Amino acid sequence: MTQDSLPKRPMRVAPLAENEWNDEQASLLAATAEGKGLGRGVLNIFATLARHPKLYKRWAVFGSHTLLKSSLPPRDRELVILRMAWLAQCRYEWGQHLSLGREAGLADAEMARIKEGPNAQDWNEADRQLLQAIDELKEHCVIGDETWQALASRYSETQLMDFIFTAGQYHMLAMALNSFGVELDSRIADAEVGQL
Fold first, then answer.
1. Every domain of the chain and the residues it spans
2. Mean local confidence (pLDDT), 43-50
3. Is the pLDDT of residue 38 over 50?
4. 71-195 in CATH: which number?
5. Is the predicted pLDDT of residue 81 greater than 70, yes or no?
6. Helix crossing, 91-103 with 74-87: angle to 10°?
7. Most buried one in 19, 61, 84, 167, CB count within 10 A?
8. Euclidean distance between CA atoms 159 and 44, whole angstroms
């Protein structure tokens, strides 16, 4: 992939404004309010997906596992998510996970290098293999034998399962975010998303 920026897409499904919430949506979204009392509100992803409460409830359990309860080390999880976000050209996902990547220990230079993939200079072998596996999953829906063996030499079976389901969750989510045209949240600077 040679392009160096992620496309802005037209909004097709708008996030719910607070005055549009029914009781069920209010209950779902109250738990996600970011910075309660600080005027930051609910992230656009949640306010958009809450338009379909049944789907939201079921997706939230799975999404919570892949983000918060995965057996993968946080840094590895964020490499997976950011590479999938880049491959799927998902501006929202990429923007959200830049700060999460930093919290997990990724340097800005590493996150910028994620765009180049596994063949970029300066990856250690473990990171290169991880990125290679993401590329194989995205391209072929299977991890090749050589890459699998490399991952299996350092991850447990549970971690391998979490790895694949994290990649799949964020690929699926990118399809939704891109198709719905979910816009960056106000706390994420457009310039930062384009800079890294």
1. 13-69, 71-195
2. 96
3. no
4. 1.20.1290.10
5. yes
6. 160
7. 84
8. 30
